[in-house]
Write a structure and sequence with these properties.
This protein is of the alpha/beta class. 25% of the residues lie in helices and 29% in strands. Helix 1 runs parallel beside helix 4 and helix 2 runs parallel beside helix 3. The longest helix is centred in the middle third of the chain and has 16 residues.
């Protein structure tokens, strides 16, 4: 039996893992329970790490894959802009970005295309939420956790006043849905990012190239942060804003 009543007239879905990603399929199942009309405008290929970049130096190509379903040769931010300004005849009630493969925590959210899409949506005046599923390297991603808990969490936050000043960053814990301890409203915190590594190699034509990779610590961060919450078994909800001014430093400089 369907336990949810549609809360939203029109929802736009996007992600940074690409339109064929299993996390997007999970998000479609979540949205189908809560929205009367679901649109999907997502990158044709993986765009992880592009933050809220938009493409201004090359044209964007769009492939129609079905009714209200489009693949874009561009970033998650491009997808949001194209959807809102061109593809959709009416603005969505809500934008959902994800479900990302891996948690988006702490300062690392600055690089996240999943969070970037939500920030782009908020910039264009639409309430926006990023969703991510934590997982353990070498283990299957528990998409069913996000898919099971997602509608309940969205119903919960839909009743709150947050959209005028932020977008939301939601992370699901790496456990079965039945083992989740509930929902926590958290601060961003520092997260687990400890550095960005550069590995150089040489291709068959003797030309050097480089791979960038992120290194992470095992720290749980401070109590009340999203990192602490998600690795303690909670679904975390963190409001994020564009204002990044370091007020203490500003006061010192003045």
């Amino acid at each position: 039996m369907e336990p949810y009543t549609p809360l939203f007239d029109r929802v736009l879905l996007t992600n940074d893992d690409g339109i064929s990603a299993p996390g997007l399929a999970a998000l479609e199942n979540i949205a189908a329970k809560l929205a009367r009309e679901v649109w999907v405008v997502a990158p044709a290929h993986d765009q992880s790490g592009v933050s809220h970049a938009i493409s201004i130096h090359h044209p964007l190509r769009v492939e129609t894959l079905g009714e209200r379903r489009f693949a874009v040769q561009g970033t998650p931010g491009d997808c949001v802009v194209l959807a809102l300004q061109h593809l959709m005849p009416h603005k969505p009630t809500l934008i959902l970005s994800g479900v990302n493969r891996g948690a988006n925590l702490g300062v690392e959210t600055a690089f996240s295309g999943t969070v970037g899409a939500a920030m782009a949506g908020r910039l264009l005046g639409v309430p926006s939420i990023a969703l991510s599923q934590a997982f353990t390297k070498g283990q299957p991603v528990k998409w069913a956790t996000a898919e099971t808990l997602g509608p309940e969490v969205l119903v919960q936050v839909a009743q709150q006043d947050w959209a005028s000043g932020s977008c939301l960053n939601i992370n699901f814990p790496d456990c079965e849905a039945s083992s989740s301890k509930g929902t926590r409203f958290t601060s961003q915190g520092t997260g687990r990012l400890s550095g960005i590594q550069v590995k150089g190699q040489v291709d068959p034509r003797n030309v050097e190239y480089f791979w960038l990779s992120m290194s992470r610590t095992e720290s749980l961060d401070e109590e009340g942060t999203e990192t602490n919450g998600v690795f303690s078994g909670y679904v975390t909800v963190t409001p994020l804003a564009f204002e990044r001014t370091a007020q203490a430093v500003l006061a010192h400089l003045k």
